[in-house]
Write a structure and sequence with these properties.
Radius of gyration: 25 Å
Low-confidence stretches: none
Strand content: 15-25%
Shape: elongated
CATH topology of the domain at 48-135: Nucleotidyltransferase, domain 5
CATH class of the domain at 48-135: Alpha Beta
Number of strands: 7
Order of helices and strands: HEEEEHEHEE
Helix content: 25-40%
Largest sheet: 5 strands, mixed
Mean pLDDT: 81
Amino acid sequence: MGFAAGGSKGVKNEINVTPLVDVVLVLLIIFMVITPMLQRGKAVNLPKASTEEKEEGKQADPVVVSITPDKKVWVESDECDQGCLEASVQKELAKMPGRRILLKGDDTLTVGDVRKVMARLREAGAKGVNLGIEELKK
C-alpha cells in the first residue's frame, strides 16, 4: 500500500490488482489439478487416420478399453488380465445395455493384437466396437 503525503483525504482512484492476481493463481492451480483427471482410459499413442464418419446424435459415454504398448489391457483405469476383461465389460454393459465400446490401441501394436481383444469384447456381449484414432490435420 502506498501512503500519500500531505493533506489529501479523498478516495484513491488506483486499481488494486493483488486480489485479481490471487484469484487467477488459484484458478490456475485448480485447472492444473483437474485437467489430468479428465482423460479416460490409459494413455496410449493412437494411430493417425482421416475420417469422414459423423456420429448420429448424442449417445451415452462409451466404455473405454485401452491396450498399452506392452499389450496390457485396461478397462477405464483398471488393469485386466485374460478373465477379467469379459467380466468387467459384461458388468459395464449390464448397467447400461447397448452402450458402445471404445477401443484405444497404441500405434505400435499389430493388427493381430487388437483383433484378439476385439474378439474377447465380442464374446463379452459387445454389439459394436469403435476404434479410437487421432484425426489427421488437413
